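Lab notebook, bench 4. We co-purified these components, and the gel suggests they stay together. Before we commit to crystallization screens, I want a quick structural picture of the whole thing.
Request: model the full complex, all chains together.
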Amino acid sequence: MGPQLSWYLALSAILFTIGVVGVIIRRNVIAMFMCIELMLNAVNLTFVAFSSFFQDVTGQLFVFIVMTVAAAEAAVGLGIIIASFRNRESLDVDDASVMKL
Amino acid sequence: MHENNLLSLIIFAPLGGAAINWFIGRRLRNEKIIGIIACSSVGISTIIAFYLAFNSNGALRSTEPILDHLWTWIQVGRFRADFGLALDRLSGTYALFVTFVGFLIHVFAVGYMHGDSGFYRFFAYLNLFMFAMLTLILADNFLLMFVGWEGVGLCSYLLIGYYTDRKEAGDAAKKAFITNRVGDWGFVLGLMLVFFLTGSISFFAKPEHGVISALQAFAGMSADPFTWKALFAGGATSVAILLFIGAAGKSAQIPLYVWLPDAMAGPTPVSALIHAATMVTAGVYMIVRCSAIYTHAPTAMFTVAIIGAATAIFAATIGLAQNDIKKVLAYSTVSQLGYMFLACGVGAFVAAIFHVITHAFFKALLFLGSGSVIHGMHHEQDMRRMGGLRKYMPITFATMLTGWLAISGIPIFAGFFSKDEILWKTWSAGEFSLPSLIWSKALWFVGAITALLTAVYMTRMMVMTFWGSERFREKDIDHHEEGDAAQARHNVHEPHESPWVMTVPLIVLAVLSTVGGFIGVPYALGSLFSDHPVNYIEQTLEPVISHDPVSVPHVEGSHAVDEMQWLSPKPQQLDGPPAVHALEGPEAASAEHAHSPEEIRQERLLALVSVLIAAFGIGFGWLIFQKRPLLQMPRILENKYYVDEIYDATIINPMEGLSREGLWKLFDVGVIDGFLHALGDAVTEGGRLVRHMQGGFVRSYAAIILIGALVLIGFFAYFGAHALGLPR
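Here is the predicted assembly.
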């Protein structure tokens, strides 16, 4: 018995949940950032799985869009993190609880 | 009926003057220029009014009014109000003396207000007043008249409260404004009832605009019966009584007269112009304009006569005991206005207008004279601190002398003829508006007593001011109750005569107060000196007023036979033998009938009586007050019968209490503020509850997003997508 669709979906759900939990419980902004990427890639996995299952290329096209957006988001996000770190000398998000410096 | 667009210039010239002075007067900083602008704008009105009244086709010669239809103001369904002006014999007569006396007072005010910081503002208000007053007079319908009516009320308010740094001036202004609101309530209701009954609010028929005359419609109705029920029947009597409430407010009749004496807090030229000569006679004008309504409402006429007579004698007694020179004149004005309403009430509309005109001359003169005295005494108004001024102010003294003789009713002077005319018309009033003929004698008696009192208090005023010892140097007066330092300091000044801008108007008005009465010499007196005496005022006005169905119009001269039926329709017959219509018979016969030897004898006798009354009043006053100018008058009179206190206790204080405790503390603070505070508190509390969501911690935001997503997903997982009820 080869790999079923449900296996991929289950793996994707596990990865997504790890991402969610990581965002909520981790205080290190880099770790949270990585967890967000993890969630995006969990979604990407479902896209690819469904694309293969339905023999439809649209899902795979969508994955490229998501990866592009994720790259852009990573660039902007890391820029913000660096700027924030320079000002606060900290990567703890709970230190950044007010808008002003 | 012809159009003439010059007419609108009469009202718009003062408006232009007001606008110029209001907008650039402050920057001009030049009293001469401001004064010239103000006086010349009224001067333009005066010249045009005289031209339109007396040119070959003028309003006072023609049988038709001069109309100026500017624009249609409101047209809703059958209701139509034009911004249209009309100059007929009545409004023409009024416009003449209003513009002329107004012009003189403007000139006087240039001198009186010299050096005042609000000079430009004063003249802007004064010109605005002229605009409103002339709109009131020249309006061709009730609604536009009401615009002028409110306009003069507003200007009166602004000018009474002109001295903004004095609290009593502000209080007096508010009192005048609020008291007038009571009257205006009656006016507006009357106006609505006129429209309801006739479908028109126009005074004149304008066929080319499809407008009928409301007054003609009333004239075509049958007269109301003489019952008190008619007051509430919603007919002509109700209209008349509602309009009279308006007139009583504006013209200071019982019970709404209380504002006029207080209005003396304004500058003296204002008292002369607004509170003596012009605005306060607007009520008389309105009633005479609506004579077609009043002659169909005997109950209302009787009420007017009673209120007028009561006001006349009531105010005269108060005038006896006042010590402020302007207060004496104020109560005198109220009293004389009572005379005018008495005349209206007995159907002597022409006599009322005649008295308005002569009163405008001599009362404006007396007020301006008192202004000159106050000016010369450095703003001292208390007569107890005057005395002996005739040496210091000879011109003011001489001119006020004529005003004094005129108001007292000494023959030759203007007041004699008009007052005598009113007394005679009261004595000889027909049965139409009186329950019985005894009433005419009773009203005459009240009028005669008032004439006596008038002579006495005017003599007291003159004696206290111009004769006797010179009390202005004395530092302290025993009777002086409120001697403050500022007033005491004024005493050291010597009184001085006023400059020519103030004395020239006085002299002109003095001449008019002397000879002004000759426009209305009654036949009985005129025939003593001439074979064919002409009573100009009666000849001019008789065609434009209505007569009650019982009495016979006494029209002199041949003009009356003209077809002047456009406002004065033939009298309605009530009962009894048909009244002989003077217009129907041959001219000679009608003249004979109008002046039967018996009536002429009676009228001459009554004239003699009123001369004796006046002479006695002056002599009596002279004897008493020459010796003791500071004679203590009865307290109740000095305190004005405590009417202000009674009003305070019965109306003002309960109303204030209700407003403060009920409306303010209970309703405003409790209900309105309470509701709003509750709303605000609810929002605050709600915000306090949910503000923890916005802690600024990124992870809690993420958790909230997660919870939201779980709720949404859980909802659809549990209920399925059908739960939204969307079409597939």
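Chain B has three domains: 2-387+394-524+631-638, 640-692, 696-728. Worth comparing against the SEC data before the next meeting. The interface with chain A takes residues 695-699, 702-703, 706 of chain B (CB under 8 Å).
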